[in-house]
């Protein structure tokens, strides 16, 4: 079996489609090598080896060792150098890389192959002793850290001490003598921490490093990252062993990272940072301040030209914005990595539109792969009102690392952020800089503020990926973890104080600023037009107020899939009438109370229908258990008794009677409408009178009346008749009629099972997947929080079924009911109106079942539109 795939010299055994096996890095190195880009050669050990390693007590599968040696031999031949040679050694990097990118989560070792003898060989051969020892000290540090688990800080401290002794500030100012000294001190750190001498055998070094990368796959921080980002189903990480190229040989060398377009706003410009005479992680490590890529043009014009050429080639080849690592060795450019760059929502949409304009990709292609549903979600993020902020309120300016406004209480560490978030607090995580250990806290925070680090720092990259507001490298402020505060010299902010940050402008403001709704640009509309041209499943919204309906319509909703009527009973006057209705002893009392509710309901429907003019509106009849409308505080009960002029004791008795043991399974939904048909009558009348009223004004209204919680076709028939009866009355009185539909929610498992029978009577189905999930699992929605988290940690559930539709179980019911329903009624309209209507994977599932529409909250509408289009492609 093949475990090792070589690349280099203009060809490769792998390609970009092999990410699962070779990881993103390995697959792209192979691809780049095949298309003739300047890639240092090497080979990739497949992720299968990692899986085997982690499952079999750190052993390798049969045959890997031999293939590894072959790989090394091939590499030696290509490079004309020998691994482990003491005169002119071949050095390699050992790099991790899984199928899904996990920035900074796993580890890399550079300059592997050096030892006390070959460092001298390298020095002689390159005539650059400083360089050779610089490589060696880096290698000891990285090997010690990655392989032996020595805290990187221990090396840093030794380095800092030496710099202090020598009175220099930068690593680059250390001379040969000092670097040799540093190597000795590093070896001492290594010896002290591990009890071993630093290993001198390159082959042993190589094996240790490879195993360390395999092991890092199951490190705590890697696991946390995968959990938060829902990365599942991967074999493990691949390992890339690659010939070193050196950005640290002198002033004609450099290393850097760049994006082919601006990842914050999408502008078509080279965007990135570099350092002269540096290696690998120096750019992101924040040791020296990296320089803007534009300056490379002046420093090394030829290499800059070449880099631009490479980035264009890569964009054309991948048809996507690329995130690239490069190194310049004595004027020669090498590409070390490329991947599709993470970007903000604004940037994603702009890049998609620009790339189509530039002819780089088709509209379809752009919709399919250049914008993710989550990107649109980001566009809907709130912003700080610009005019609301005066310059002197700003206590710090940093880099605009990830756009969006965030307001919260300051916390200084990640555990605290998670803890406060768990209590429902909004927090801003404030750190000098973040590291992969902080991802839990970063995820819990509303926004992130760091005082150190660039646009490609850990905080910036992670925040952009999540669409979380972030201000990075805000060096106006000094953070003191000990006193739990930060200050800009004038203003001091303590833990627990409110701050507001604007990640698009990079500003920090003391206090709690109001946030405002985002507005969409032209690119957004262009892009969404393409989405809608492709898409054929409709997207509706769940809305029960005219403002929500209007907003959703702006977001592209094609109707209302669920207008809940219960919220309409909560106004000051209405709740009185409602309560009166509920505690009525007789039908006539009840009717009297309902009569006073009718005008309110009718006006509500007029407003909603008007906002959705020309589009279908599904109104659900009263659903929750009645006692939800009754007061529970003593004072309220007393005043209600007064109001209704009944003895307090009677009212209390009535309330007690209404209490249920399992209200969710109790007297609710159509059970109310059947026991008290006058409720259904009043609601139907309000709906249809509103429709007639608008029709008389020349407006098109398409009402769909939905009966909730149906479990038997008899229930439905009963309610259907009530509605039809009222409709006939209303139309006769008005001398005008409107078309209306009567259908049902499918939210009780029994209804799904007898869907064919129900469909004989019902004109449409709408899956209420919240209740359907609740009843299929038997998990109370309101109590499941107590155990769902543990279920997911234990792997008993993969996702929260209330967020992501359980395709296997609940989905089977949806599928069966759709099929049965359509068998009984060919043109049955079927939609879904649960929380899942806005979740991209659930939208895809609904599309594949042939549903006519999904319905979701207004803010999810653009997301659902894109998800529906992508489901089709
Ligand atoms: P990460 O996934 O954390 O980015 P990488 O494997 O990409 O880790 O490597 C970290 C750094 O080391 C990068 O800046 C990369 O460019 C550099 N690097 C990796 N391999 C080599 C090599 N063979 N020659 C020179 N630099 C390298
Ligand atoms: Mg790394
Ligand atoms: Mg990298």
Q: How would you describe this protein?
A:
Residues 425-506 form the PEP-utilising enzyme mobile domain. Substrate binds at residues 564, 620, 747, 768-771. Catalyzes the reversible phosphorylation of pyruvate and phosphate. The chain is α/β, with parallel strands linked by helices. The protein is 46% helix and 18% strand. The chain is built from 34 helices and 34 strands. It has an eight-stranded mixed β-sheet. Strands 27-28-29-30-31-32-33-34 form an eight-stranded parallel barrel, surrounded by seven helices. Helix 20 links the parallel strand 27 (538-542) and strand 28. Helix 4 (118-126) packs antiparallel against helix 5 (129-146) and helix 13 (345-357) crosses helix 19 (522-534). The longest helix is centred in the last third of the chain and has 25 residues, at 587-611. The model has no long low-confidence stretch (mean pLDDT 92). One magnesium ion (MG) binds next to loops.
């Amino acid at each position: 079996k093949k475990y090792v795939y070589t690349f280099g010299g203009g060809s490769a055994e792998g390609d970009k489609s092999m990410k699962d096996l070779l990881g993103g890095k390995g697959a792209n190195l192979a691809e780049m090598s095949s298309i003739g880009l300047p890639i240092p050669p090497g080979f990739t050990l497949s992720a299968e080896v990692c899986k085997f390693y982690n499952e079999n007590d750190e052993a390798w599968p049969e045959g890997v060792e031999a293939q590894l040696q072959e790989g090394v031999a091939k590499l030696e031949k290509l490079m004309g150098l020998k691994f482990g040679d003491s005169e002119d050694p071949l050095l390699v990097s050992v790099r991790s890389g899984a199928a899904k990118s996990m920035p900074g989560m796993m580890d890399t070792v550079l300059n592997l192959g050096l030892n006390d003898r070959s460092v001298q060989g390298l020095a002689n051969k390159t005539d650059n002793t400083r360089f050779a020892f610089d490589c060696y000290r880096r290698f000891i540090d990285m090997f010690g850290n990655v392989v032996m688990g020595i805290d990187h800080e221990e090396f840093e401290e030794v380095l800092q001490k030496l710099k202090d002794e020598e009175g220099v500030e930068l690593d680059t100012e250390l001379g040969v003598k000092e670097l040799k000294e540093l190597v000795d001190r590093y070896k001492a750190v290594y010896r002290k921490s591990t009890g071993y001498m630093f290993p001198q055998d390159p082959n042993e070094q190589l094996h240790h490093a490879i195993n360390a990368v395999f092991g890092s796959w199951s490190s705590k921080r890697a696991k946390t990252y995968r959990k938060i980002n829902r990365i599942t189903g991967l074999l493990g990480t691949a390992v890339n062993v690659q010939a070193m190229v050196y950005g640290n040989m002198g002033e004609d060398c450099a290393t850097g990272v760049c994006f082919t377009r601006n990842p914050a706003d999408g502008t078509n410009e080279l965007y990135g940072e570099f350092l002269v005479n540096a290696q690998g992680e120096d750019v992101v490590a924040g040791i020296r301040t990296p320089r803007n890529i534009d300056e490379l043009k002046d420093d090394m014009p030829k290499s800059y030209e070449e880099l631009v050429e490479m980035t264009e080639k890569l964009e054309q080849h991948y048809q996507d914005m690329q995130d690239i690592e490069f190194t310049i060795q004595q004027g020669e450019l090498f590409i070390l990595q490329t991947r599709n760059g993470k970007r903000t929502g604004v940037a994603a949409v702009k890049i998609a539109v620009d790339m189509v304009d530039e002819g780089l990709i088709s509209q379809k292609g752009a919709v399919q792969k250049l914008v993710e549903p989550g990107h649109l979600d980001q566009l809907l993020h709130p912003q700080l009102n610009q005019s609301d902020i005066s310059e002197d309120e700003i206590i710090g300016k940093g880099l605009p690392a990830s756009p969006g406004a965030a307001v919260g209480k300051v916390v200084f560490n990640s555990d605290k952020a998670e803890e406060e978030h768990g209590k429902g607090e909004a927090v801003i995580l404030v750190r000098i800089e973040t590291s992969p250990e902080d991802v839990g806290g970063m995820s819990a925070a509303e926004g992130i503020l760091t005082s150190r680090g660039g646009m490609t720092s850990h905080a910036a990259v992670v925040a952009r990926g999540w669409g979380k507001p972030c201000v990075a490298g805000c060096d106006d402020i000094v953070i003191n973890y000990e006193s739990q505060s930060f200050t800009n010299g004038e203003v001091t902010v303590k833990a627990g104080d409110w701050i507001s940050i604007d990640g698009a402008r990079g500003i920090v403001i003391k206090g709690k600023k109001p946030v405002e709704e985002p507005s969409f640009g032209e690119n957004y509309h262009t892009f969404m037009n393409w989405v809608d041209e492709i898409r054929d499943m409709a997207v509706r919204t769940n809305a029960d107020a005219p403002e929500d309906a209007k907003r959703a319509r702006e977001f592209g909703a094609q109707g209302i899939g669920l207008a809940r009527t219960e919220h309409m009973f909560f106004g000051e006057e209405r709740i009185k009438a409602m309560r009166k209705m509920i505690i009525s002893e007789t039908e006539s009392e009840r009717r009297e109370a309902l009569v006073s509710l009718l005008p309110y309901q009718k006006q509500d429907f007029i407003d909603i229908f008007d906002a959705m003019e020309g589009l279908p509106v599904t109104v659900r009849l009263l659903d929750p258990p009645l006692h939800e409308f009754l007061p529970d505080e003593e004072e309220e009960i007393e005043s209600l008794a007064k109001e209704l002029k009944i003895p307090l004791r009677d009212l209390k008795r009535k309330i007690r009677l209404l209490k249920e043991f399992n209200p969710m399974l109790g007297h609710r939904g159509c059970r109310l409408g059947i026991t008290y048909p006058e409720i259904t009558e009043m609601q139907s009348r309000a709906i249809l009178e509103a429709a007639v009223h608008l029709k008389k004004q020349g407006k098109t209204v398409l009402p769909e009346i939905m009966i909730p919680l149906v479990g038997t076709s008899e229930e439905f028939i009963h309610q259907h008749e009530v509605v039809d009866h009222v409709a006939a009355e209303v139309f006769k009185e008005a001398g005008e009629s409107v078309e209306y539909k009567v259908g049902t929610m499918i939210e009780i498992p029994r209804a799904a099972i007898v869907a064919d029978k129900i469909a004989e009577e019902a004109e449409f189905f709408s899956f209420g997947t919240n209740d359907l999930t609740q009843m299929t699992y038997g998990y109370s929605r309101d109590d499941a929080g107590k155990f769902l988290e543990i279920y997911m940690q234990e792997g008993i559930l993969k996702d929260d079924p209330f967020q992501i539709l359980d395709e296997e179980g609940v989905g089977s019911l949806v599928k069966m009911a759709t099929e049965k329903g359509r068998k009984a009624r060919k043109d049955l309209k079927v939609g879904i109106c649960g929380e899942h209507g806005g979740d991209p994977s659930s939208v895809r599932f609904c599309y594949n079942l042939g549903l006519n529409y999904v319905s979701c909250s207004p803010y999810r509408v653009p997301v659902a539109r894109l998800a529906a289009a992508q489901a089709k492609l």
